[in-house]
Input
Amino acid sequence: MARERIGAASTPTRTAPWARIVAALEPRPDELVVNKTTYGTFASTGLDHTLRFMGIDTLVIGGVVTNVCVETTARDAADMGYQTILVDDACAAFSPEIHEATLLSFQGPFGRVRTADEVLTLLKQALPVAVSTPR
Output
C-alpha cells in the first residue's frame, strides 16, 4: 500500500521541493546541515567524522520515515558506538503499526525510545542554560 502511495523508492535531490527543510525548522547560519543521499545518514556523509571531532557521543534522532531513514541511521549510529535515542513522537511512518514495530525492535538492543518531552527533560537536566535559551 505504501509503495502505491509513494511510487518508486528514491532519494530527492537537495533542490527538490519535497526535500526542502520546513520553514519553521530552518537552520541558523551557524548550524550544521547534513545533505544525505542514502537512506542512512552515515553512509553518504561525513557526519561520523564531524560528530567525533565535536566530541559528541549521544544522538537524539527523529524524522521520517521511521522504519526507513530514521531506523537505518539510528541502527548505524548504535553500531558505530553512539548512545542513541529515537524520539517516538518526532518520527512518522506510513502506518502506526509499522512505526510502533520499528520502535519496539529498536528499544533495548540498539538504544532507547523516548518522547520529545522526556528528551527535553533529560536535556534540561544536562544542559540547563543551553536548552532554556529561546531560538
Summary: The mean pLDDT is 89. The beta strands are 58-64, 83-92, 112-114.
